[in-house]
Amino acid sequence: MVSLTVDLISKSNHFKKKRGVSFAQYLQTLTHLHFSNKNIEHIGDLSMCGNLSVLYLYDNNIKQICNLDFASNLTHLYMQKNNITQIDNLNNLHKLSNLYLGGNRITVVEGLEQLGQLKELHLESQRLVPGEKLLFDSRTLLSLAETLCVLNINNNNIDDITDLSVLKNLQHFSAAFNKLQSLKEIEDVLSHWPKLILLDLRGNPVCKERKYRDRLITACKSLEMFDGRKVSDATRRFLLWKKSCKHLNEKKQANTASANDHLLFNR
């Protein structure tokens, strides 16, 4: 089994180029560690790398996130395309801002309650068994409500995003190639995201709904990019004007109907 340890780091070409520096000094000053696509199955003892801020471990065979308690300075963790089934052992990564876990085997988004600085979470294309979909733990969602700005959940068989409405600071939301069908549900969720500027829902059944694009642009007035296409200010103003006119006409018709009913009642 290939394990990421300080011994493996000592054999890397990057360290060999550091002339006049002891290995202990090198580990203490190390901020970025690149070990992607190295057939790594386990994270060993890296506690001597106390200043590590960015860790690249994508395209390996890691089954569990472990032995990262020392990494209190870590801000970016790249572990996409491994064999991880559960998000855990991240409680000490209080400075973590970007977490990449796409292409694993995760079924429940959980274990992020202590990550008070997390801004980006990438969970696209989990390798789920047929009939399974990616789920979200309510405690984790509440803990991310104030900080999370970017969420990528593309291609995860998701058919309901109602629970995600608590993420009120989202700016980028990608949920392409899922199973979202309810346009009304999505409108309701978008009403809770006043800062959203990028939305990608391509490949969902809801995209075939009548007035799909128009309705979601008016539901989220901050959108700048929608399904890969720019939303112009002119388009937004026109759609909002149409919606306002429709609302006024409906109100006028309701008032007219009420007045007619009143006249009939008093004859």
Automatic annotation (TrEMBL):
Pfam families with a match to the protein in the record: LRR_4, LRR_9
InterPro entries in the record: Leu-rich_rpt, Leu-rich_rpt_4, LRR_dom_sf, SDS22/Internalin_LRR
SMART domains found in the cross-reference section: LRR_SD22 (SM00365)
Residue ranges that the Swiss-Prot or TrEMBL entry lists as coiled coil: none
Classification via CDD domains: PPP1R42
Keywords: Leucine-rich repeat, Repeat
SUPFAM superfamilies, per the entry: L domain-like (SSF52058)
Official protein name in the record: Protein phosphatase 1 regulatory subunit 42
Organism listed in the record: Oryzias javanicus
